[in-house]
Amino acid sequence: MVRSCIAAGAICFVLAAGLAFAQDLELLRAECLSNSEFHDPNACFDEPVAYRSGQTEYTCEDQRSFGNCGESWMTDNGYCKATCGGCTLLDQIKVDESLCVTNIVMMLSDVPRIQDALDNRMSSLQDCNAEKLTLFLPTSDALLRAQAESENGTPSLIRGSIILDTLDRVSVPYYDIPLDDGTHTVTAIAGNELLVTVDNGEITQVQSSTDGVATDVNKCAEACNGRVCSVDLFI
Predict the structure, then answer these.
(1) CA-CA distances (angstroms) from residue 135 to 25, 42, 122, 217, 233?
(2) Which of 8, 57, 112, 212 is 20 to 30 A from 201, comparing alpha carbons?
């Protein structure tokens, strides 16, 4: 069983013997949703320049038509991110309430070198110039179910080394997934194969070719450095 606490910007996990696992992890979800560091409903939205400069006559669409999206005064201040295509993978993860607990777990680690690797990965997820990837991330419900079913109820999934490995196994180079209808075999950056089903140009299912575990894709959100797809199982 795991209980979380978020205080002064830090997360801690302690074993809570004798407490219902699902109830403990519901606390984690609630704390996650109330903490803007991990769930930010405004992570990827349009903040018009007008809000700060007083240029009320110009919308984000106007700024894009003027060719201003790439200007440093726009990008440095986070203006018009949605309209200008400036939303990163990390932005899209943070804005998706269903990925809130997954977002926390992605930031956890059990040893410094793993934390460094995770920090590097998180940095790349918020870099529009990084390699474009498709991420298949479990929803909070999927992650909590997987944790509850883990051996002896121990927090085996809530370890940085596990999450780092999982990120590699569910990260696929963006352009390696054709959007032609059908089922396509693709290779994740960890070297494992995934079967990705596309219907009407939308990714609808992903399956591990290793153990056959398949899950529906709830939705995919495009970002400047790829797309993030939320899935119903921990694959």
Answers:
(1) 24, 21, 12, 11, 13
(2) 212
In this structure, the answer to whether residues 128 and 81 fall within a common structural domain is no
CA 191 to chain centre: 20
Q: 108 or 187, which is more confident?
A: 187
Q: What is the dihedral of CA 112, 115, 116, 119, to 10 degrees?
A: -160
Domain that holds residue 116: 87-231
- Clarify whether residues 95 and 196 are in a common domain: yes
CA distances from 110 to 29, 104, 113, 167, 232 (A): 21, 14, 9, 16, 26
Same-domain status, 123 and 219: yes
Give the predicted TM-score (pTM) of the model.
0.82
- Chain-centre distance for alpha carbon 133: 11
Length of the chain: 235
Distance CA 79, CA 84 (A): 9
User: What stretches of 84-212 show up as alpha helix (H) in DSSP?
Assistant: 89-95, 100-106, 112-125, 140-148, 160-169
Q: How many angstroms separate the CA atoms of 168 and 183, rounded?
A: 21
Domain end point (choices 86, 109, 140): 86
Contact 48, 69 (CB under 8 A): no
The model's pLDDT over 189-234, given as tens digits with 9 standing for 90+, comes to: 999 999 999 999 999 999 999 889 999 999 999 999 999 999 998 8
Tens of pLDDT, residue by residue over 173-192, are 999 999 999 999 999 999 99
Q: What is the CATH number of the domain that holds 173?
A: 2.30.180.10
